[in-house]
## 1
Amino acid sequence: MYQPTLYARSNAAQRESVSRVLREWAGRLRWSREEQEAVLDVGCGPGDVTAQLLLPRLPSSVRVLVGHDVSEEMVRHAAAAHAALAPRLRFLCTDIAARDLPATPLGAFAQQLQGFHKVFSFYALHWVADQRTALRNIHSLLRPGGEALLLLVANAPMYDAHIAMQNNPRWCDFMQDAYSFMPPYKRSTDPVKDFSAELQQAGFNIHACKVENFSYRYPTMQDFADSTMVLNPFLKRVPEELQTTFINDFMTEYQREKGKYMSMVSRQELERNDTTLYHSHLLTHVEKGNQDVS
Ligand SMILES: C[S@@+](CC[C@H](N)C(=O)[O-])C[C@H]1O[C@@H](n2cnc3c(N)ncnc32)[C@H](O)[C@@H]1O
């Protein structure tokens, strides 16, 4: 997961999805004409989405955009790769689920700013098991009246493929904790209801919360495999001489598991052993009420 250069080369699907979301949503947020706003990107990874997709969508009045990530490697890479855009764009290392947020670099910076006006997060929050603390922290990082646009994976055949692999005696020893890498709402029968409940518990007013299906066709099977393997938490545990077999087995399971997502996948695509990545994501637009003082 923490391979910034490789990830930035293999995230075409995420970039396509974020571009679509920003095209539709960036202009819907309330941007101030008078105030120089401060914006945060939670779980920015290698910073390419922050610098190349988010920053150009922000009004020129935005005085600072902060990308932050739990991974020091990601933050180091992002800061070096986008140094030319500093100090308007800067990167900090902090866990969004930190129990003592004010003591972290992000918490301290937010205090100096008196809070962020906007928070964005793309494809990061489903990695965070402690949703309650993460959402409460996002709420506390915002100014009263501040808005957040959050995009996270709800479900994907990739995770079913992990479980199928975990049940395979050949791979089970490397994947005993497969369930701890599942998106938090994967097993929910109503992800919108469950995520909305967490958002409300954190203190947010919800303007929109929905599940959308997304698919992206990679040019080749190799591109598809590279993109899924860069995020695969188990591959590095597998001895090098077995890694190709592991990847091939994963791809076979993935094709099989796609069949369970018939609303996302046409029968025709299933039959073609195609190179399409599928997931459903949760997209939400929330606001911190004006009366909030947390
Ligand atoms: C799939 S990458 C997404 C990167 C980028 N937002 C994008 O859209 O390409 C997920 C990122 O979330 C980060 N992440 C995971 N858990 C986190 C946490 N608790 N706090 C902050 N970042 C986290 C990971 O380190 C990783 O860089």
## 2
Amino acid sequence: MGNIGASEIITKEPLYKRFELSSLDYSEIIEIIFYEGFVDCFCPYCGKSSIFSGKLDVNQQQEKVNTQFSLSSFPGGGGGTVKIFQKPELYSLNFYCSRHTNHILNVVYKIENGSLTKIGQSPSLFEIQRGVFKKYKTVLGENYNDLYNSIMFYSSHFGVAAFAHLRRILENYFMRMAHEQCKKESNWNEKQFREARFIEKLELLKNNLPETLIQNPRIYSIISKGIHELSEEECLLYFEAVKECVFLCLDDTIEENRRIKSKENIKTELSRIDNKLNNK
Ligand SMILES: [Zn+2]
């Protein structure tokens, strides 16, 4: 399963994504379904980021010990894991906000048919991620709705729909800005651009698109594909990486805007001082 931990499954992975038990070892499964550590995420009740900590009740602690004991008594590794988790079972976890114990994050896992799935979460993945992405509202303007929808679809495990909205941000925000820049260039062929297909447009605008989006060949190849060419699995697989790229580009834009604003403020302040000195 790579290096994703129990906390990342809660803060990053959508509901209903299946993790095959055969791809995990005992300790990883135990760590996920009986996770007692910290979850660092946005608390929708506090309205700011917080640290939640997990606490198992007495029954769960006993169950954890029993499971560990049963697993250790099975010789021969992986086969034992599957035997232990053969019966469908639910595991629910509670995490408490460090600011207020009434702010509770609940997570429910189901083990069934050889796989582990997160089947419930409250507040939802969308709500806890919203704290991270709402800062892009000002910079994205009307395109913010696409970001909102994209993350909402992803948190419910709808890959193509999530990806389609992410692609619209690319098209209606980044490519539109790049197009405005390109139109100012003397050798720009607007007619050729208007008649081009999406992938050709992307190619024509390449030099004016954020480096983060075009630098990585895998990201570039995935964003240049038509939506109908992408499978549900492919969209889910690449969603996080492409979304992080978009966030990085938006962070750059925010930083750039902040610098421009700062420079303007300095200019205004200096001219205010000048005026004051001249009026003396
Ligand atoms: Zn809180």
